[in-house]
């Protein structure tokens, strides 16, 4: 251990610890901009400068390592002057007139730093670099004019997701973060995961909003507007209204969406249970009939897009199941429409998702039935929060609401879909009982929980022998498994891949900031909801049984094939 002094306080840290991390240990907060915990420390923005006794130059705390006997000061006049100058330089090339209309207004790290450092005038004015606004992608908008060149998006895209869709080009005043040759994000191998959005400290990258379209549908008296919420939304929406990360706000969320004017409030969780039935049967079918193995989950549209770009030869491994919210949309416009006597053409389905790639997914031609889209609009958790604010709803004061019947009924297995490993755990609970006919005594599969990049488990299922499974979250981790499938060294039967690190709880549409601690807390909230529910296995959701009896017939049957399954072509 190393002992050093920060602002007069002694602190002990392990070798390799940065001054920023050491300061945190003694509750000294050093401001940062280009630093992104667990992802990037490059000392580029010079906002975290500190003074070190005996060192002539100020040093960036995010990269400078602690050493024995170091005496560090974080709050001297020299430090404050230098930090303020660095910030003023960044601000001199930032379109400050746009703040009021910026999607990150009041949630902007640059704005917060300016306030914190007491910037009351724009000191340095002059030429500003001019970039483009790229809004061709169905999911993500890039506004280069607002980019502060922190490179957080670049590092997430390259190091965590291994996609490298964007990177810095040109030099000095002409530096731009963009895809190769200045192409649109829509024309390159972007997975549309939106991890660049949650990494961006300002409003240079944001989701393409559908809020106005949704309001228009709600106010149209001829439209029957149905909303569904993804599992992970309930574990994070509260953060937009001041609740601590990991607060489950399912009840308040339901009251809020009803107040917004939706005609029906359903839950993607219902279709998550349905997915387990369809996907579980597909797995069993592949196992018994020599189908392509390992089978890989298909819920995460960023993962699907990544596979289409980088691993087209592995597409036959991907389950043919549509993702749960697409399944639910298809059922609303068939089963529910029929039941209630509503013309599907007048139904508008809105999905509230933690995910930006779902905006792309709902517009895929495969995601429709007889020319009618399964899901009309996808809004993110952040967009839902904006709508709630726009409607003047006091979220914190809301009573708990309820889901509408029957497409709002769900098991605990469905709720954990939102955390990495959740789909696999839900599938194992069902496959075990369906194959053996016995009750699974321990429903928690701890081996597939948590934030380890690649998780593995072997489950002994009498009658099926040992089923080997793996779980990967984040595309960099997915790539590791996919390479092993390609070289023949992966002997798994079933693999869960979720595009975003941590799974959907930290999708690109979730409240900002996101870090591993927040990922853990959001996942914990979902596991708690699961353990508190009476029904914890998808096949025990009584309304799943009903829908097969009343409408679908049997798993993998003709209707399921038509409405709930799809295929992807290279
Ligand atoms: Fe997900 Fe899914 S879990 S993909 O991670 O299978 O976005 O939450 O809605 O559709 O159910 C996301 C979350 C979500 C689907 C489900």
From TrEMBL:
Chain ranges of the 2Fe-2S ferredoxin-type domain: 1-78
CDD domains, per database record: fer2
Limits of the 4Fe-4S His(Cys)3-ligated-type domain: 78-118
InterPro entries: 2Fe-2S_ferredoxin-like_sf (IPR036010), 2Fe-2S_ferredoxin-type (IPR001041), 4Fe4S_Fe-S-bd (IPR017896), 4Fe4S_Fe_S_CS (IPR017900), Cytosolic_Fe-S_CAF (IPR050340), Fe_hydrogenase (IPR009016), Fe_hydrogenase_lsu_C (IPR004108), Fe_hydrogenase_ssu (IPR003149)
UniProt entry tagged with the keyword Cell division: no
Domain 4Fe-4S ferredoxin-type: 138-168, 181-210
Name of this chain's protein: NAD(P)-dependent iron-only hydrogenase catalytic subunit
Organism: Desulfallas thermosapovorans DSM 6562
